[in-house]
Amino acid sequence: MVCCHELPNSTARRLSAIVQNLSHHITNPSLSVHILEFLVGVGRIPQIHVDFTGDEFSIVFQVAFKYLQHSQALSRERSFQTESAARMSKYIVYLAYETLAVWFLALKLQMRPGYVGWLVRQLALANDERELDDHATVFVDMLERFTYADSPLQKYPDSVETVGQAIYKKDWVVGRAVVTIETVGEDGHVKVTRRKSVDTIFVYLANDRQVCW
């Protein structure tokens, strides 16, 4: 990481070979945490990987997936792990998903759609084709949000004044989202809120107008 900041041009020329070498050691328990922390750091320095090709991005993703698949095998032995070892395992799994997220966002926008299907298939394999765990679900939500746009994540304020008015509210779980519909009895205004792990979207229906955030 020091070289990435102090010798960016030299590191950029050798980064592909570095990543390929690291991919052979990702299942080494004494190295995996350092490898993934390095990849997360490098992914946030655009000038280091600006010339990466699609195949080189795939290698980075495969490093993270290789550890996730390895962690499934380790999970069967976690009952014999110490508490500190179990915590470290969880932290490294977090780093693997962080690597996937950082490097997906590092892709140029026009390249992202071509990776989505492959990434989801690899997630299924990493989860032994069982139901996706919480980390994987959040990552899939992130793919949906950022595949076609780099939209901001800030939460917009509620612009409908409902103080003192009767509100009828109901919630539903729809897929991986929680949908809430609120209706104001006095004027018929409707607010639809869809909450997912990475974003919240509001839709207001009032006086034949629709406003969506």
How would you sum up this structure, described in words?
- The protein has 213 residues and is α+β, with helices and mostly antiparallel strands.
- It has helices at 2-6, 8-23, 32-43, 46-49, 54-75, 83-106, 113-126, 134-146, and strands spanning 167-174, 177-184, 190-195, 200-206, 209-212.
- A 5-stranded antiparallel β-sheet has the order 1-2-3-4-5, with no helix packed on it.
- The longest helix is centred in the middle third of the chain and has 24 residues, at 83-106.
List the helices and strands and how they pair.
Layout: H1 2-6, H2 8-23, H3 32-43, H4 46-49, H5 54-75, H6 83-106, H7 113-126, H8 134-146, E1 167-174, E2 177-184, E3 190-195, E4 200-206, E5 209-212
Antiparallel strand pairs: 1-2, 2-3, 3-4, 4-5
Helix pairs in contact: 2-5, 3-6, 5-6, 5-7, 6-8
Salient structural properties:
single chain; 213 residues; alpha+beta; 2 domains; 5-stranded antiparallel β-sheet; 5 strands; 52% helix; globular
* Average pLDDT reading: 83
Structural domains: how many: 2
Low-confidence stretches: none
Ends distance:
38 Å
Oligomer: single chain
Strand pairing plus helix content: what structural class? Answer: alpha+beta
Rg, Å, rounded: 22 Å
Q: What does the largest sheet look like? A: 5 strands, antiparallel
| Tally of separate helices | 8
DSSP helix fraction: 40-55%
Please provide the ordered H/E string of secondary-structure elements: HHHHHHHHEEEEE
Rough shape? globular
Strand order in the sheet with the most strands = 1-2-3-4-5
How many strand units? 5
